[in-house]
Amino acid sequence: NAIWIYTRYSELLEDNEYHKGDDKCHLRIAKLNKVIEKCARYGIKVFIFAIEPLGFSAEMAKQYPDIVGGCTYWSTDKSFCPSTQECKNYCINSTRKIFERAKGLGGLIVITAGEKVSSCASWSDAHEECPRCSKRHKSHTLSMVCEYLKEGIRQAGSDAEFIVPEMLDYL
Question: What percentage of the chain's residues is helix, strand, coil (to nearest 5)?
């Protein structure tokens, strides 16, 4: 018995390390908390649905060259490289902050591959173009991202669920 709400980390975190939110982030968190509270009265869990870590525009990639991985054939966007400590920190810290600020979230549904440029595991060519991630199987790269996001939930002290609806044939 649950609902999910689509969002981006940048919509909830004004202090997000790479994708800075706007001045309405605190209002969105407050609204999310109201939804969580209201749904809890009826035994309904609230999940956030996101595509994270969301990749970089080509312009942003120039600002953060150490964290950038590959890109995809259809986009100039660059991916976060999960092989970097910076990506690990970003995923853990951002997820932790959200789950600390929105206590009672039932879980996180995340598409880490296939919808938009996110990490080096998001598309085959992004994985193959990354000098770090291309050295391992794509499933390992994907599992790294998932572990980082789950660690953020754990560090927030939450027992929320973590759901990744990936396609097996993608790997």
Answer: 45, 15, 40
